[in-house]
Amino acid sequence: MPEIWFPHLGIEIEQLSRTAFSIFGQDIYWYGIFIGLGVICGVLLVMHEAKRTGQNPDSYLDFAIYALIFAVIGARLYYVLFSWDFYSQNPEKIFAIREGGLAIYGGIIGGVLTAIIYCKVKRMDFWKMADTAAPSLILGQVMGRWGNFFNKEAFGGYTDNLFAMRYQLSQVRTSDVTPDILQHLVTVNGVDYIQVHPTFFYESAWNACIFVILLILQRKKKFDGQVCAVYFFGYALGRVWIEGLRTDQLLIGGIPVSQALSAILILASVGLYIYRRKKEAV
Description:
Oligomer: single chain
Helix content: 55-70%
Order of helices and strands: EEEEHHHHHEHEEHHEEH
Structural class: alpha+beta
Strand order of the largest sheet: 2-1-5-7-6
Largest sheet: 5 strands, antiparallel
Strand content: 5-15%
């Protein structure tokens, strides 16, 4: 029986390992490969855009090195902070990044703070940099979500829609399987399957649409900060919906942290758009 199954699309995947290959006994995971590809493609794209707009591409290459380091640190800190009940009891796991546990919002926060400091040191225009880098950032997010697919994680609750995805129950983390999912367990030839929303796909597809919009907007923008504001608005708008479907939410006081942050970011991005437009007009 297949490990992964899209029954309404007629797609069956017999076996899908999270390990791509091994080097000297060290497993290399697909998740890391997709993240790496996202970084490489993002850097190439941002350097191309910098050159097109008369900026120094090398400045963005230097920034990418710093941003990657602090984005990973931010992504891990965010995840650990909002999973503190577990990590307070298992402090040795805090630095076990290879076991999973990176939150994209933490990475974005780390990257933005790095950009602010970098621009001050290099005397660059932060908003121009943000507009130049925004499509590269969301392109990395488009690619990175497919790492979740290989890890068999970041899925939603039960659904029977066109994109419904089945995972073998034995292949997923029990902590991600809700009672509602178990109530709709599907057994085929003695193999138990959960049938869920492929939220990794929803987010990747949504981000791909935002990516195209940002590429078009880069060539038609009226003021610095416009592309950045649209990026935050578009990403947060999709995330506030998709996060509500997921079963592996980071919670604080029973509230999904990333969903609440997305709602705040939607309002903040609208305010940023209006502020930057008015400032440009002045």
